[in-house]
Amino acid sequence: MEYIAIIKRTGGPSDQMSFFSTAIRRICAIRKRKTTISSCYSIQTNGYKCFSAKNVEKITFFQTTPLLRHRNSQILDLDAPKLVKNAENSKNQQKSKRIEWSGGAILMLGLPAFAFSLGIWQCYRLKWKLDLIDHLHSRLSQTAVDLPLDLSCDSLEPLEYCRVTVTGEFLHNREFIISPRGRFDPAKKQSAAAGSMLSENEMSSHGGHLITPFRLKDSGKVILINRGWLPSFYFDPSTHQKTNPIGVVTFDGIVRKTEKRPQFVGQNIPEQGVWYYRDLEQIAKHHDTEPVWLDAAYETTVPGGPIGGQTNINVRNEHLNYMTTWFTLTLVTLLMWIHKFRK
């Protein structure tokens, strides 16, 4: 790095001499502010000369003509070694900051690395969950199969959300309601056109699911059928009994498993006939049925009766939020690490 001195050239146009005086004023101002002076040493014109100042005892800026507003000549002496030292310090300060690697720096770098790895893991988890949801939805549209004769949990586990065909007879005298339940209907216009008890303008979440025990024709076993959604003012059996299927019927249903009690939902009270959620073991024991549950397909909806097709695939999927959280933590901790260890 060369440090320059500006010397007056013998003669020279007045504009060059004016430029020289301007340079003196700039250097004085910079020196007063105690800031770097290297930026002012880019002065290179025909009237001035730049040379190395490392071995110069003293650098003198002088003026022999009254170019400034002061009439008398002024002399500015700068100590050359001090000037060189200050310039070198300024050079070091202007260098881009570098990371100071140490055991602590490497250890702390593990925080953003760990957060980043968890974010990548949540990416894979998100893809897996989306594939699972797509797979479950595809099951709903598959061709129905016969309900197995073996109604154990092991045989029905692979059939969750699958369509099965059953034949038998409803036991309407043993029906009950699970409420409150909102209406799930992906084809609202179809239900209104089919003449259901509610028009499209009367959609309501104040209702429940009508559950009716069903005796299978082949085995004589009794299972549970969710016939569909009813508004609360149709809970009384007398208000919907005209729509009850009589005799042996065949229809499709969706296999469902037991349901964990949702948060903030009360406990079932079997003795009072109060049911808040689908606990298959508890319901089957109280109503003397098999712990098997089918949601009647939407096609079973009859005019004025419960609205079928209440199978709502509600799989908890928070992986996108988790992924966003971990990648945000990665960025924050990395910036903090750079601020801490970059000198």
Give the radius of gyration. Answer: 43 Å
The number of strands is 9
Gross morphology is elongated
Intertermini distance: 22 Å
Measured as a percent range, the helix fraction is: 25-40%
Protein name: SURF1-like protein
Membrane topology: Multi-pass membrane protein
InterPro entries: Surf1/Shy1 (IPR002994), Surf1/Surf4 (IPR045214)
Pfam families: SURF1
Overview of the structural elements:
The chain is of the alpha+beta class and 343 residues long. It folds into three domains: 14-94, no CATH class; 103-130 and 319-341; 162-300, no CATH class. It has helices spanning 14-33, 80-94, 103-140, 153-156, 188-193, 280-287, 319-341; strands spanning 58-62, 75-79, 145-146, 163-170, 176-178, 207-216, 222-231, 248-256, 293-296. Strands 4-6-7-9-8 form a five-stranded mixed barrel. Strands 1-2 form a two-stranded antiparallel sheet. Helix 4 links the parallel strand 3 (145-146) and strand 4 (163-170). Helix 3 (103-140) packs antiparallel against helix 7 (319-341). The longest helix is centred in the middle third of the chain and has 38 residues, at 103-140. The protein is elongated and about 105 Å long. Mean pLDDT is 76; it is low at 1-17, 31-80 and 189-203. This is SURF1-like protein.
